[in-house]
Amino acid sequence: LGCELTASTKSYTFQVDEEDNSDHILALSVVCLTDGAKDECNVVEVVGRNHENQEIAVPVANLKLSCQPLLSLDNFKLQPPVTFRLAAGSGPVHLAGWHRIIHREGASFEEDDDLSEEDEEELPPIMPAKK
Q: How many CA atoms lie within 13 A of 36 on its CB side?
């Protein structure tokens, strides 16, 4: 994931194909002001849906060039579809993160010779260390 929010492009929506029988994880790593940002408060919100399918917006970053130009979100995990919105300020604010696709057990999917980094292989269980 990589997108930029500005005064002219205030939102970005990340969607996935919900029919692909896979689980998707979107993780937000860093939110930062980029070249051309003014010294003003830039508030970035995550807009999603709650368990009752109502839209909710939660602020995840409040950046200001002079005191907080960058925020590490330590791979803050979200369930797509999700929208990132510049609720205040004019940016530009850059968002960086990753998207992981986890194929459900027993799901049929076409094999692809061009495996992307987005596919995650199932890891064997961790065994306790021998003493």
A: 9
